[in-house]
Amino acid sequence: GNESGHKDEL
Amino acid sequence: MNIFRLTGDLSHLAAIVILLLKIWKTRSCAGISGKSQLLFALVFTTRYLDLFTSFISLYNTSMKLIYIACSYATVYLIYMKFKATYDGNHDTFRVEFLVVPVGGLSFLVNHDFSPLEILWTFSIYLESVAILPQLFMISKTGEAETITTHYLFFQGLYRALYLVNWIWRFYFEGFFDLIAVVAGVVQTILYCDFFYLYITKGMSGCALPA
Predict the structure, then answer these.
(1) At residue B11, does pLDDT exceed 60?
(2) How far lies B46's CA from each of B107, B149, B163, in Å?
(3) Is B54 in Cβ contact with A9 (below 8 Å)?
């Protein structure tokens, strides 16, 4: 999902 | 985590360390835009506030802390320790022309209207244009030192690898973040002109586009 997915990237 | 994401992160780290070591070894920040480095410090600060709210992995936390520490160290060297060598006369890009529109846009276009999410969005948009003061400075002086061009090469390579990472994640994980992708494309495009010159002019201290 969009909401949590981007947080693992720097 | 795929190979493009990992090499992207490592390119980003290489760029940051190259710049820090260059300034430290030469005891000079001539040719470096302090404004770009201030913007990058602001980018990392606003993006990594989730260090306080969520834990993803040891790798994730360590890299975030390293990026933040290195960007603040770079700003410290430019504006404090080696301030006498900072070429402020050529670092004349008006950063408010970036920060104000980017701030407005992050309020209007985001995944969720919450403080942390708006700050994350702000950092994504700001990062895409944070290199502009540096490119503007080089265009004014017409030349960049070899090591500065290596720095820019790894900054551009990092974003290009992230684009491949997002294509990979779209196909194999069904993951797609429109905000990050659009900003990432913009950011990568800014380096295209530079990439062309870097490769054709033999990767040395070359005259760069005006």
Answers:
(1) yes
(2) 14, 27, 22
(3) no
Reported ipTM: the value is: 0.81
8 Å CB contact between B95 and B41: no
The DSSP secondary-structure symbol of B80 reads I
Q: Is residue B144 classed as helix, strand or coil in its secondary structure?
A: coil
What is the separation of C-alpha B9 from the centre of its chain, rounded to a whole number of angstroms?
Answer: 12
Residue B5 contacts residue B92 (beta carbons within 8 Å): no
Confidence of residue B85 (pLDDT cuts 50, 70, 90): very high
DSSP bridge pairs for B207: B143
Contact call for residues B160 and B20 (beta carbons, < 8 A): no
Q: Which residues are bridge partners to B143 per DSSP?
A: B207
Query: Which residue, chain included where needed, has tokens 């950063």?
Result: B95
State the Cα–Cα distance between residues B183 and B161, nearest whole angstrom.
14
Q: Which two tokens stand for residue B3?
A: 């190979």
Q: What's the pLDDT at B195?
A: 84
A5: nearest CA in chain B? B175
Q: Smallest Cβ distance to A2: which of B57, B64, B111?
A: B111
